[in-house]
């Protein structure tokens, strides 16, 4: 298998928080926590932080982390393709700082599962949801016009977790996406799937942090 390069995108300010990926997380920040986790992923040869922020550049230099300096305003597909062009003939593991409970243990198993098969050209994390779903007032995974069935009988929908994606640089350039046309769906638990999107969630999730530390580090 080709070597794996990890990319951590980071912003000083984003649509979720005024401090972006520099939002406090325990005694550190979401970004620094993700860097700490990335260092424990045994399958990656090297990793980079992609950012337009000079403040984040300075932090990464102090930590000895490699930087990809990028433009401030970039559409996601442009960010993906421009990054992929820098690492031809490699696999890219995309790690988002807003998923702090996605442990190195899980990511190592995720990569290992992908390495063991040649059926797929990319891999994504998913959380199976056995719930009643509607779209435009029409039931999706159950028949709402018949007797309601229990959740155990519902066919689960698979929700993509935004914590990590794995694919080749060539696939990213071709599809302008982190998801290839033949993705491995790797299921993860509820805690690992959590993504922080609001300040309220930061405060709530901190209560889970001690549990995480005891079980994953």
Task: Give a written overview of the molecule.
The chain is of the alpha/beta class and about 220 residues long. Helices cover about 30% and strands about 25% of the residues. It has a seven-stranded mixed sheet with strand order 5-4-1-6-10-7-11. Helix 3 runs antiparallel to helix 5. It starts with a strand and ends with a helix.
CATH architecture, please? Alpha-Beta Complex
Task: Specify the number of helices.
Answer: 7
Alpha-beta content class: alpha/beta
Work out the radius of gyration.
18 Å
Query: Could you give me the name of the CATH homologous superfamily?
Result: Spore Coat Polysaccharide Biosynthesis Protein SpsA, Chain A
**Can you write the helix and strand succession as a string?**
EEEHEHEHEHEEEEHEHH
Helix content: 25-40%
Straight-line distance between termini: 28 Å
Overall pLDDT score: 89
Layout of secondary structure:
Elements: E1 4-9, E2 24-25, E3 28-29, H1 30-38, E4 44-51, H2 54-63, E5 66-69, H3 76-85, E6 91-95, H4 104-115, E7 122-129, E8 134-135, E9 138-139, E10 157-168, H5 169-175, E11 183-187, H6 190-193, H7 199-216
Parallel strand pairs: 1-4, 1-6, 4-5, 7-11
Antiparallel strand pairs: 2-3, 6-10, 7-10, 8-9
Helix pairs in contact: 3-5
